[in-house]
Amino acid sequence: MPNIPTTTKTPLHTPDWYIKWVSSVVLLIGMLLTSNQIHPLNLFVTLTGCTGWLIVAILWNDRSIIFTNTVAITILMNGLIKHFI
Is residue 80 helix, strand or coil? Predict the structure, then answer.
């Protein structure tokens, strides 16, 4: 099998790179909390990850990621409001 070099399209070790990776890990932790029914902590953690990705999306000016994370944040906030009211 030939060794095909891979290159990344995004710069490495820039602020958005760190936010992207931390937010991705935080989202995975949020999913783990959700699968173990640890409520409402799962909503707070997932909200944090989505907020990080929203920041990245704004920095990248990527409207599809902005839209997706804005909707996700709205849904998670709705869950938190319903939990505490």
Answer: helix
Q: Tokens 């640890």 label which residue? A: 38
**Coil/strand/helix, residue 60:** helix
**Residue labelled with tokens 């902005």:** 66
pLDDT exceeds 70 at position 69: yes
How far apart are the two ends of the chain, measured CA to CA in Å? 59
The single-letter code of the amino acid at 22 is: V
* Distance, CA of 67 to chain centre: 13
Tokens of 49: 């990850």
Task: Provide the token pair at 79.
Answer: 């869950």
What is the rounded distance in angstroms from the CA atom of residue 51 to the CA atom of residue 57?
10
The whole-model pTM stands at 0.88
